[in-house]
Every structure is written in C-alpha cells, then in structure tokens.
C-alpha cells in the first residue's frame, strides 16, 4: 500500500477553519497546505482594508463586506480539506480491498474489525507474531508486557 491512511474529514475541515493550511497539513498534503496558507494571506493583504484589520485586533468586529473576500477563500479551503480527506479515504479503501483480494490471508491480519469479530476479544492469538489484548481486543506485540493500544497489562496466560 502507499502512504494513504484513514483521516477524519471533519477534523481536516475544522483545522482548515482554525488556521489556514492546517487541515491540509493534517492530510500530509504539504504543497496544498502552503498554497492555501498563501492564498488566504494574499486575500487578506490584497482585499481586506487596513481599517478592518485594525478593528479586528482592537476587538471591534469589522464590517462583513470588508472581510468577505478572505472569508470566501477560507471557506473554499475548508471545503477543499474536507473533500481531499474523503477522496483520500476512498483511495485507501480501494487499495485495502485490492490487497485483500490479492492475498486473503493478509486481509484477516490487516483488519482490526474482522479479527476482533472472529476472536471476540478473548485474548486468543490472531497469528504467531501477535496476541489479542483481553481488554480492548486489538492485536499487540507479545514481547511487550502491556497492550500498546490501551496500556492494559498482559498477564502471563495472555502472552503465551
């Protein structure tokens, strides 16, 4: 698989709203993050009057028509972060499904949900290299004395 992983679209949108470009940085789209940051900064510098910026810093809300161009660019950035996250998730799922179709043995070890349903979180080993945590049901490294996901100590009977 490539460097895709599941991302939360709502979090990408929220981060893009808080700081321009941060939602795209969360998605690891570095050039796009820089581009949106520069676009919002340029919109503020070019279109927002200095009086509106000064008013915002003194606590007085500037007129909406003065900040509308910058707000429109921020809105576009938020929408783009959300759409890019959704597109990333769809591509991740396609790659995961293709990998499962190519090698069904890896599909069981690759999916926490499928493995959790088959062993029902009873601490039974999913494979020779991993064991199941009796608390959270996720696969964990048997060389650790605790679950790396929930930090629950693994008993002697769980690690064997």
Question: Can you tell me about this structure?
Answer:
This protein has 160 residues and is mainly α. The protein is built from eight helices and two strands, in the order αααααααββα. A two-stranded antiparallel sheet has the order 1-2. A hairpin with a 6-residue loop joins strand 1 (131-132) and strand 2 (139-140). The chain is elongated and about 65 Å long. Mean pLDDT is 82; it is low at 113-127.
Topology:
Layout: H1 9-18, H2 22-26, H3 30-47, H4 50-58, H5 64-102, H6 104-110, H7 112-119, E1 131-132, E2 139-140, H8 156-159
Antiparallel strand pairs: 1-2
Helix pairs in contact: 1-5, 3-5, 5-6
Spell out the key features of this protein.
two-stranded antiparallel sheet, 2% strand, 160 residues, mainly alpha
Low-confidence stretches: 113-127
User: Number of DSSP strands?
Assistant: 2
How does the helix and strand content classify structurally? mainly alpha
Distance between the termini: 31 Å
Radius of gyration, in Å, reads 23 Å
* Sheet having the most strands: 2 strands, antiparallel
Helix content: 55-70%
Shape: elongated
Mean pLDDT over the residues: 82
Widest sheet: strand order? Answer: 1-2
Number of helices: 8
Order of H and E elements? HHHHHHHEEH
- Beta fraction of the residues? under 5%
Concise overview:
By secondary structure, this protein is mainly α. It contains eight helices and two strands.
